[in-house]
Design a protein that fits this description.
The chain has 437 residues and is an alpha+beta fold. The protein contains 18 helices and seven strands. Bound molecules: carboxymethyl coenzyme *A (CMC).
Length: 437
């Protein structure tokens, strides 16, 4: 039997290499340390040296890239964009400032910000021909399916033949995604599309396109504007999560930004990722309609024979608390209070959180509310229908996806994403004729 041993310095910051002993032979694997002291064993040459690969389904132990965009310390509940703590970013910045920060690595000066906003505003319209696409979808079609398709379709209107066009397409996508999302909402409720208004700020413009009707004036509520700004900022990036890794994977084949982001939207849709925000509300409604029996659902979530999970609970990286959930819990009280909305689901959510946080199953497994737990309650209070929640997540995540796509593209020596596998199937055998099958 082959014996593996791996030895590395425990003084992480001074570690130079890790020693791997495979079948009696020693190999030195270089170590790498990030700016926050995260340690990685560089296995880039592992297969060439040893003939072996690593096996890490779900990539829980795999660093897929080096990145300077977002830092998370899941044990401490820390999230920072380009070094700035999420709490401060959420309190002080506008979403487009955050988009600029993520994309270009620095906060914009006033002049840079004005230029950025002006260029976004210049591209908010979608080509009139795109309106025809909406007609082809069933009215009850899920808006995430429509969003992914229409974003991919943008590549047909805006090919990227040169670098200038690539940069412009990033701006175009930031500008057009709210329009595409608002149009899909309007289609789902049978109302006429409302065109963007470039005199409005980003969040106001989305609310205007979503809620305005041609027959009466629509004044954007400052509470809604503020809430949306906060929600978009809190979702703006989250390092190498499922959808972002998808965007990077697709981008690694040098696919254009629209195709890469469309793939990210598809990945986000799943209920274990961004689709959880829709599922949280459906779960809370189910509990409401079941005599508010939280204990029953906590018990179901703990039962290994029951596929039910507490949606909006747990996270691959956060093992203490999700700082975004903490901010949103406070915001939910504030927004519902300001809007005068009384939603029994908020109370159910708080009760469920209390019950779960005092249950040894959740405590031992370090399962806490994540960003999706309270976001849906705020969207609901804002009048956004449940089916649109994951679209809202996508609107927020867009700058993060594009910043990661851009970073990958601009990093020299990038390679196509192409993992290996451990094959467990049949070994070679001859194809039998019909009579022998
Ligand atoms: N309810 C009940 N048990 C859970 C839950 C939950 N929500 N989440 C994890 N567990 C259990 C799981 O059964 C496993 O138990 P055991 O060790 O006995 O097999 C253990 O906790 C570890 O779970 P895991 O599935 O191995 O953890 P993961 O890191 O692979 O998955 C997760 C993370 C977020 C997919 C998972 O916690 C989950 O399914 N949560 C519910 C869906 C959800 O809220 N997703 C949104 C994530 S935050 C937004 C985003 O960034 O996408």
């Amino acid at each position: 039997m082959e014996v593996w041993e791996i030895e590395m310095s425990t003084a992480h910051t001074s570690a130079q290499s890790a020693k791997l002993i495979l079948d009696g032979q020693e190999y030195d694997l270089p170590m790498t340390v990030g700016s926050e002291g995260e340690v990685g064993i560089d296995i880039g040459k592992l297969r060439a040296l040893t003939g072996a690969v690593t096996l890490d389904p779900g990539y829980g132990n795999t660093g897929s890239c080096r990145s300077t965009i977002t830092f998370i310390d899941g044990e401490k509940g820390i999230l920072r964009y380009r070094g700035y703590p999420i709490e401060e970013v959420a309190e002080k910045l506008q979403f487009l400032e955050v988009a600029y920060l993520l994309l270009y690595g620095k906060l914009p000066t006033k002049a840079e910000y004005e230029t950025f906003v002006a260029s976004v505003n210049q591209h908010t319209l979608v080509n009139e021909e795109m309106k025809n696409f909406y007609v082809g979808y069933p009215r009850r079609g899920h808006p995430m399916a429509i969003l992914a398709s229409l974003v991919a379709s943008l590549a047909t209107f805006h090919p990227s033949p040169n670098e200038e066009e690539v940069e412009l397409n990033i701006i175009r996508l930031i500008a057009k995604l709210p329009t595409i999302a608002a149009f899909s909402y309007k289609m789902s409720v049978g109302q006429p599309f409302v065109y963007p208004r470039n005199d409005l700020a980003y969040c106001e413009n989305f609310l205007h396109m979503t809620f305005a009707l041609p027959v009466e004036p629509y004044i954007v509520s400052p509470t809604l504007r503020k809430a949306l700004n906060l929600l978009l900022i809190l979702h703006a990036d989250h390092e190498q999560n499922c959808s972002t890794s998808t965007v990077r994977m697709v981008g690694s084949s040098q696919a254009n930004v629209f195709a890469s982001v469309a793939a990210g939207i598809a990945a986000l849709w799943g209920p274990l990722h961004g689709g959880a925000n829709q599922r949280v509300i459906e779960m809370l409604e189910m509990i409401r309609d079941d005599d508010m029996d939280f204990q029953k659902y906590v018990a179901k979530a703990k039962d290994k024979n029951d596929p039910f999970r507490l949606m909006g609970f747990g996270h691959r990286v956060y093992k203490n608390f999700d700082p975004r959930a903490k901010i949103l819990k406070g915001a939910a009280d504030e927004v519902l209070g300001e809007l005068g909305v009384e939603d029994p689901l908020l109370e159910i959510a708080k009760n469920l959180e209390d019950v779960a946080l005092n249950d040894s199953y959740f405590v031992e497994k370090k399962l806490y509310p994540n960003v999706d737990f309270y976001s849906g309650i705020i969207y609901r209070a804002m009048g956004i229908p449940t089916g649109m929640f994951t679209v809202m997540f996508a609107l927020g995540r867009l700058p993060g996806w594009m910043a990661q796509w851009k970073e990958q593209r601009e990093t020299p020596g990038g390679r196509i994403g192409r993992p290996r596998q451990i094959y467990d199937g049949e070994t070679q055998r001859p194809v039998p004729g019909f009579d022998a099958r």
